[in-house]
Amino acid sequence: MSTTTQAQTNGVFDAWVADGGDAPAGPDWLQAARRDARARIATQGAPTAKAEGWRYTGLRDLMQQDFQRVHEPVSALQPGDIDEALIPGLDAHRVVVVNGRYVPQLSALGTLPTGVRVGGLHAMLQSDPAALEGRLTQIAGAGCHVFATLNTAAMDDGLVLLLERGAVLQRPIELIHLSVGMDEPRVAQPRHLIHLGDGAQAEVIERYLSLGDSLYCTNSLLEIELGRDALLRHRRIQLESPHAFHITGLYLSQGANSQYDGVNIGLGSAWARTDLVTRFRGEHARCDLSGLYLAGDRQLVDYHMDIRHDLPNCASSENFKGIVHGRGRAVFDGLVYVAPGASKTDAAMSNRNLMLSENAEVDTKPQLEIYNDDVKCSHGTTVGQIEPEMLFYLRSRGISAPLARRMLCLGFAGEIIDALGNEALRQHVAEQVGQRLEQAPV
Amino acid sequence: MSALTEQLAREPANPNVDADGAYDHLVQSEYEHGFVTDIESDTLPPGLDEDVIRTISRRKGEPEWMLEWRLKAYRNWLEMPTPEWAAVHYPPIDFQAISYFSAPKRKQLQSLDEVDPVLLETYEKLGIPIEEQKALAGVAVDAVFDSVSVATTFREKLAEVGVIFCSISEALQEYPELVRKYIGTVVTPKDNFYAGLNSAVFTDGTFVYVPKHTRCPMELSTYFRINEAKTGQFERTLIVADEGSYVSYLEGCTAPQRDENQLHAAVVELIALDDAEIKYSTVQNWYPGDEDGRGGIYNFVTKRGDCRGARSKISWTQVETGSAITWKYPSCILRGDDSIGEFYSVAVTKGRQQADTGTKMIHMGRNTRSTIVSKGISAQHGQQSYRGLVRIAGKAEGARNHTQCDSLLIGDQCAANTFPYIEVKNPTAKMEHEATTSKISDDQLFYCRSRGLSEEDAVSMIVNGFCKEVFNELPMEFAVEAQKLLSISLEGAVG
């Protein structure tokens, strides 16, 4: 990174924004955005325990780590090395990002239909920065907390997916984000941009994985812009190392009549924070977010949602389910905001939790802020345990208690797993969930 | 909803948009209870320092420990920041511009005959004739006019069964040890900014003690009035229900029309010991300010009940239609095993009213249960937030909570927010939260109109149906009053 983007930070995050090695400085507008971000970091600093957005999500463990930025791309990996990370039978255009770097030799793009461009962010910044202007850093804006600002200030490489007007991807794009263990804790800050032109359609499967069980931090940020009538199916599977910290922000900007269908599966990492932010640019757009999270022993899973209805006739839904066991903790904080002019808004939020152990904790906060009377808004939350009657029913049919519990948990999770659609992916996730439940002392 | 009244609701400051003026009387329906009684008051000059607190304590003839307690609270309050987290907006309050003591000059009355006739007249204007109260449904009234109790009825009848029902000043003199044992144990002076201020300067309030295994023979009631301009009213209510006892307490308020903002920072503490039950009902109709939001009461209240004993029960029911700003969260700490907490609320905001209200249910004991039913109605420029916390501690085996918050929006300039916080640390807990936001549908209105009801009556009927669950929890006389109040409140707000 060029010295022009250097600025004073208050010290806490110096290592996060240290010189990024061979990353391109980018065009002037990007440099300006990054300078702004650095200035904001200096004033923002690390969130305190009193900050409302971090009320239930302690940052102490994260801030205690001495993370270093990843400098060199990982070149030692050969295509055969990532076989264990692949999903059998998943037919997709594959993009592999290792420790925040796009690695072409591991990726398998195959033949792309006309009107579809896929590439690495750094490469695109050098070859065709104009294609990113007005989108990169613009969709997320200031972001919702300092980690988004950090990503903007120090962005690593990532995926750029651009679909021209009317382009349709038949096969999904699979974005594998791989973390490879290193001697000392590393922070990678991948940055992705997806733009779908008017009427374009695509499916993106985004996966976070690690080779080995090392401690690291991923601070990723995605910007997605959907044109009029565009349709994006987005599947996000988080299976980071059990010692990892995972922060991800998704900033979505939807044009008129566009549809976003997102399923979030959060199974891995010791500490995970996800922010989903939606803004509507046109009427009759629809945003559906669903999710399944498993928080096992000493795991923390945090989903924050900020859905803002500024325009009339848009619809949004959030359907999140969680299973918490051991000393696991789950945090759900959803906000639906309906502006005064946003008549005929249809918004529904639901968060259901299954709590399986004495020391687990669920903190949930489904919020509605409504400034219009012509709306249909609701939210519901439940926290409960497995019904003894259901367990008895299965036991009386000769099924062992642990298996019966697992069956009931899988039944609870099934609704979200089925929503994944893609059969190979669905099987993969069902297996992962099953395995985790098997290891859990449920 | 007719386009005309919709337009009116949007421009409440300019009622002349309606050429023939047919709706003017509705939109401009002024505060019914707006009048000021001219009566000489013994008032301290505005300002707050330790000397003011010493003066208050001396004039009330309080024991030394009480003064120390007040001073400690005051010193701590000085360090506290003004809270800014609530979704309400108002100019900063100048605490030095408030007079902290105001007492009608004639005190120590033995009977109603000695009460200043002007005062009695005031009560009658408010529809609270004290003489008639005796006969009416066995309600004993400890009427508070500004800050000092001037008349108390039914004391003897209550004394027969051993129930203590008096002003907190009297209690401090007659039962100092009882007060000392319980005051500040539910809401400590350090609890929050306004509770701290109240602890330092409270001038009056009510004390109730129901002895063991006693069912209070009548519903106890205090009517609040704020009269003196610039006098903040700092009430302190302490209700203790000893083992196996039951008491129902009613609180109702109205206030005269004034341009000055009047701060009201009360503290209510309820303590229920083993098998005791306290039912606390509120109808609040303080002056909400004019149509531009000028004037009106700031109602910053800390209300909390402590289910200290096993199988105890505390139930809060509130109907909030007044005040420029309401900021209160009647809460229950469910400490005793098998204890029960309930919160039933109807809140109406119209004009420029703002309300940030809700409850906290803290489950600590085993098999504790809580129910929350909150109904919010927002009209014109009304801003309303439900803010609630349900916390189920790790040791609260078998805890159960059901929460329902429904909002009804009338007009497109109002707001209804829901901020529920749910924290569960025990796997045997069962916790459900539901919330909906809706408006009165055209179908509902059409159905009523086609059966010959006027639009206003139809809306009133639908709104009353919406609130029925809460009204059912109110004592009968209050329920009737509350329904009437709701209809009056929504006059001119619907269209």
TrEMBL record, chain A:
Residues 28-174 form the SUF system FeS cluster assembly SufBD N-terminal domain. InterPro entries: Fe-S_cluster_assembly_SufBD (IPR055346), SUF_FeS_clus_asmbl_SufBD_core (IPR000825), SUF_FeS_clus_asmbl_SufBD_sf (IPR037284), SUF_FeS_clus_asmbl_SufD (IPR011542), SufBD_N (IPR045595). GO terms for biological process: iron-sulfur cluster assembly. Residues 186-412 form the SUF system FeS cluster assembly SufBD core domain. Pfam families: SUFBD_core (PF01458), SufBD_N (PF19295). It comes from the Bacteria. Belongs to the iron-sulfur cluster assembly SufBD family. NCBIfam families: sufD (TIGR01981). This is Fe-S cluster assembly protein SufD. It comes from Thiohalocapsa marina. The gene is sufD.
From TrEMBL, chain B:
This is Fe-S cluster assembly protein SufB. Residues 156-215 form the SUF system FeS cluster assembly SufBD N-terminal domain. One of its GO terms (biological process) is iron-sulfur cluster assembly. It comes from the Bacteria. InterPro entries: Fe-S_cluster_assembly_SufBD, SUF_FeS_clus_asmbl_SufB, SUF_FeS_clus_asmbl_SufBD_core, SUF_FeS_clus_asmbl_SufBD_sf, SufBD_N. Residues 1-20 are annotated as: Disordered. Belongs to the iron-sulfur cluster assembly SufBD family. PANTHER family: FES CLUSTER ASSEMBLY PROTEIN SUF, UPF0051 PROTEIN ABCI8, CHLOROPLASTIC-RELATED. The gene is sufB. Residues 224-466 form the SUF system FeS cluster assembly SufBD core domain.
